[in-house]
Design brief:
The complex is a heterodimer.
Chain A lengths: L4 H35 L16 H4 L5 H32 L2 H12 L6 H12 L4 H7 L11 H25 L3 H9 L4 H29 L3 H7 L6 H11 L3 H29 L9
Helix pairs in contact in A: 1-12, 3-7, 3-9, 3-11, 5-7, 5-10, 7-9, 7-10, 8-9, 9-12, 11-12
Chain B lengths: L1 H22 L15 H7 L2 H32 L4 H16 L2 H26 L12 H27 L1 H9 L4 H30 L2 H6 L6 H11 L3 H33 L1
Helix pairs in contact in B: 1-11, 2-11, 3-6, 3-8, 3-10, 4-6, 6-8, 7-8, 8-11
Classes of the chains: A mainly alpha, B mainly alpha.
Subcellular location (chain A): Cell membrane
InterPro entries (chain A): MetI-like, MetI-like_sf
Membrane topology (chain A): Multi-pass membrane protein
Chain lengths: ~290, ~270
């Protein structure tokens, strides 16, 4: 007996979604549940996890307050500095650049983002290290400048690593901008500066929001940049997590920190979506 | 304005260029260029630890990218057939796979797998008739699973956007001409989405090949190339790392450019 069309359709849908649903369940939902369970447990004497039900790990969070503060301050500050550099760059690409070369110019901005962050951060260790810029400065008489392992170095690494991700959404929103609006504004006697502030900037805000949210969220989980450029002096939540899981092996405490980090990410995301909803309807980000 | 843009490009590329330049340095120095030489590439390629790490990375990136491309594409095709509520749950989980920081994905996978292995390894050992029962542990499988989670969601997102831009009319026209759903898929939909599937595959490969933090947690005793590079950097900066870094850069550069060409093709076709 042939299957009814509706049953057949459902079967196909199930078959199409089964592998990804299974994957999401086994490697996202279950691990996350396990992590939450671990966060209520105790550290086994030899390290690792021992079943228990205690809130001690969460009560102990202030012990890692420095990591939280560093992350919660440097992530938004980093995103903001990124924005300051990215906006003019995106504006140039979308409005001023010669359309014939636009595609190539945009590609040149995107490509670094998809190359190894490890290698790109390593490059700055090189430049800021004692044999890099400080070495050049000592040649002209400025001695003993320390650049590596400072908050400034971490901030620089952040801007360097995430600039492409900030430029792209802003570029997309500026590119979609209707040029006739700018002409209308000019025809009505607005000076370029006031056209920018009353037309261009408000219309590009969704892109700005997307960029700031994306970069902030990725920075909240950052490990490599503070590790390599902060040298253990400027550490993020990610660095505390690596320490707790791979060195001191306090898994329950690490799990509690990881759960808290996810909650912070969710809050940031919700706030960003709220603001984005307020300023505009739909927008799409092109990450590639 | 132009000057600023030039400065942005210099900022983005000068550090990379410096790494590449010093990979060809004849001397050991990281600040003085004493002459052109390929010796560091020779040293790197003769380093068996490095070659093993490279092989591991290639196996993991290829396997996880193939799985991500196939399952992600299937998910993108399947999601549009769902009712609004199930679809929202599915899309939410996919978004979570992308948004949750890599460090958390690594930890959660580690914790869950260690718990599962801790439970099943003794059980298998008890039931195993032979001398040496199989032991499950971290390694290829766990890295592939954790990388595949993110990249599958990435492929689904890219292919879904492509399907959305296709429009229903072309599919309906095909059905009106008495094509079976399979024929419509095979002859109309698949050729249209194939470039985005390939682009998704390449991006997935690039992500897995370059990822450090997720693999750092779930690699067990296996070493991937980024883990090797990270460990070497901690031991000190040498021109050999520059040579490895340059090779990593060139590999991802080729992949990302190919992905962009594929996605660009799709865009010009759909607009023109």
């Amino acid at each position: 007996m042939p299957l009814a069309p509706k049953t057949k359709r459902n079967l196909v849908t199930t078959a199409l979604l089964a592998p990804s649903a299974l994957w999401l369940f086994v490697f996202l939902v279950l691990p996350f549940a396990a992590m939450v369970i671990f966060s209520f447990g105790e550290r086994a004497p030899a390290g690792g996890y021992q079943p228990a039900f205690t809130l001690a790990q969460y009560a102990n969070l202030p012990a890692r307050a420095t990591a939280f503060w560093n992350t919660l301050i440097l992530a938004p500050v980093g995103a903001f500095v990124c924005l300051l550099v990215a906006y003019p760059a995106a504006y140039y690409l979308a409005v001023k650049a010669d359309p014939r070369y636009r595609l190539m110019l945009v590609s040149l901005v995107v490509v670094p983002f998809w190359t190894s962050l490890l290698v790109r951060t390593y490059a700055w260790m090189y430049i800021l290290g004692s044999r890099g810029i400080p070495n050049l400065l000592s040649m002209i008489g400025i001695e003993d400048v320390r650049m590596l392992n400072t908050p400034g170095a971490v901030l620089l690494g952040i801007v360097y690593g995430y600039l492409p991700l900030m430029i792209m959404p802003i570029y997309v929103s500026l590119e979609k901008l209707d040029r006739r609006l700018l002409e209308a504004s000019a025809d009505l006697g607005a000076r370029p500066v006031s056209t920018f502030f009353s037309v261009t900037l408000p219309l590009s805000l969704p892109g700005v929001m997307t960029g700031v949210a994306l970069v902030t969220i990725l920075l909240l989980g950052e490990y490599l940049i503070p590790q390599l450029l902060g040298g253990g002096k400027v550490f993020f939540i990610g660095n505390a997590l690596v320490d707790l899981f791979l060195q001191s092996r306090n898994w329950p405490f690490g799990s509690a920190i990881a759960v808290t980090l996810v909650l912070v990410v969710v809050v940031v995301l919700m706030v960003a979506m709220r603001i984005a909803w307020k300023i505009s309807g739909s927008r799409q980000v092109d990450l590639v | 304005m132009r000057a600023l843009m030039t400065a942005v490009y210099v900022f983005l590329y000068a550090p990379i260029a410096l790494v590449v330049l010093f990979s060809f340095n004849a001397g050991r120095s990281a600040s003085e260029f004493t002459g052109f030489s390929l010796q560091w590439y020779g040293k790197a390629l003769g380093n068996t630890f490095l070659i093993t790490a490279l092989q591991n990375s290639l196996i993991i990136a290829f396997t996880s990218a193939v799985l991500a491309a196939v399952f992600g594409t299937m998910a993108a095709l399947g999601m549009q057939r769902l009712g609004p509520r199930t679809r929202a749950i599915f899309e939410g989980l996919m978004a979570a796979a992308i948004v949750v920081p890599g460090v958390v994905i690594g930890i959660a996978t580690l914790v869950a797998l260690v718990a599962v292995f801790g439970a099943i390894n003794p059980a298998i050992a008890g039931l195993w008739p032979g001398e040496r029962p199989p032991q499950f542990g971290l390694g290829y499988g766990s890295i592939i699973a954790a990388h595949g989670l993110f990249t599958m969601a990435l492929v689904a997102m890219i292919v879904k956007a492509r399907i959305a831009s296709l429009g229903r009319d072309i599919v309906e026209a095909s059905a009106d001409l008495y094509a079976t759903p399979w024929t419509t898929f095979h002859q109309i939909v698949l050729p249209q989405i194939l470039p985005s599937v390939l682009a998704g595959f390449l991006l997935a490969f690039t992500f897995s090949f370059d990822d450090f933090i997720v693999a750092f947690f779930v690699a067990g005793s296996k070493t991937t190339l980024p883990i090797y590079v990270f460990a070497s950097i901690r031991r000190g900066v040498t021109p050999e790392i520059n040579a490895v870094a340059t090779m990593v850069l060139v590999a991802s550069l080729i992949l990302i450019l190919a992905a962009r060409v594929l996605m660009r093709e799709r865009k010009t076709k759909s607009t023109g």
